[in-house]
Amino acid sequence: MGKQVRLVRTVEHRPLRRGTHSVDVCGLVQRYHVRGGAGPVCVVLPGGPGLSWEYMRMPALEQSMTVVYVEPIGTGESGRLPTHPYGYDRAFYARALDRLLEHLGQERVYLLGHGHGGRVAQFFALRNPDRLSGLILHGSSPVGGAELEEETRHQFERFIRRNQSNPGLPAVIEAARTMPTIADDRLLTAAVRRVFPALVAHYWNRREELSPLRSRLRLSYLSVRRADGTADPVDDRQSLRSLEVPTLVIAGSYDVVGGMRWGRELQSLIPNARLLVLAWSGHLGHVEEPERFAEGVSGFVTATRPMALLHGGMLAA
User: Fold this and answer.
1) How far apart are CA 47 and CA 57, in angstroms?
2) For a Cys-Cys bond, which of 64, 103, 110, 138 suits 42, CB 3.0-4.6 Å?
3) H or E element: which one contains 251?
4) In this model, does residue 313 exceed pLDDT 70?
5) pTM of the entire structure?
6) Interval 244-258: pLDDT, tens
7) C-alpha span between 232 and 205 (Å, rounded)
8) What's the CA dihedral at 192, 195, 200, 202 to 10 degrees?
9) CATH says 18-146+222-309 is which class?
10) 143: which DSSP letter?
11) 210 touches 204 (CB < 8 A)
12) Mapping DSSP to helix (H, G, I), strand (E, B) and coil, where does residue 74 land?
């Protein structure tokens, strides 16, 4: 006589307390914000680098998951490195994330990274696959540097052509031109608010709906260079071919930063990756198509939640 084998879903997390909390990371305060409170834990890394966490709020996703929004070190009320604005490379943010997961007491989580946060997330996933139940790359890319900048310029030119008769376009173009020269948090915040129409698909048709988010955007001046000022090149193409974590790639059809070229390339590089295309979104699909975004993430989570074997009854000898 043997024992039966019964498949059940693992308990993936202990309940997290809603609200704003902090953890010590390398002697610095790392703030994070817990919302939702039901379902598996999803840790969210915002983009920029330097964008404050609030723009990533996803109420529709919070209905089915416990969402932990990271307030990256160097932004908002989190601490700043002694080498600020340098030192915010992917290796540093990966160490900070590892400390946060240890503090949360989660064996495995879903990790969602947006834009630059997506490149941090894939860096972490490649080195710590055992810490993740799944990876969600939202508006991310397999590369950074000059190649990413060139593709962004190309997509921005398409945005200009689509909106060439709009009287608000010159202000967006001027803001995009000056942003790379600004090193002041207040001036950067003003510039990113002016460039905001380029970050979404149809801003001027949805001005009343999207203006409140635009007015709340905050951007800190951070450099992705290492603490000594040397470059931190990003090209994950070869490494991503061996990524072992189930992955969902999300791309907006009108995204000027992490658009369809990168979405398709990430899907082709990462084994068995899924691609969710948001046909009416730019770089902020979680805001522009919140229901479809949440449904796509929830479906991915349902399909990839870990299973465990519990032994009871009889198992054949």
Assistant:
1) 13
2) 110
3) strand 247-252
4) no
5) 0.91
6) 999 999 999 999 998
7) 39
8) 150
9) alpha beta
10) B
11) no
12) coil
Q: State the Cα–Cα distance between residues 40 and 67, nearest whole angstrom.
A: 8
Euclidean distance between CA atoms 102 and 1, whole angstroms: 42
- Cβ atoms of 315 and 18 within 8 Å: the answer is no
- Note the pLDDT of residue 258: 82
Q: CA angle at residue 46 from 210 to 96, to 5 degrees?
A: 160
Widest CA span in the chain? 80
Residue 253 burial by Cβ neighbours in a 10 Å radius (0-12, 13-18, 19+): middle
Distance CA 233, CA 225 (A): 9
SS (H, E, C) 168-207: CHHHHHHHHHHHHHCCCHHHHHHHHHHHHHHHCCCHHHCH
Both ends of the chain: CA-CA distance in Å? 6
Tens digit of each residue's pLDDT (9 = 90 or more) over 171-226 = 999 999 999 999 999 999 999 999 999 999 999 999 999 999 999 999 999 998 99
Domain map (residue ranges) of the chain: 18-146+222-309, 150-216
User: Is the confidence at residue 26, as pLDDT, over 90?
Assistant: no
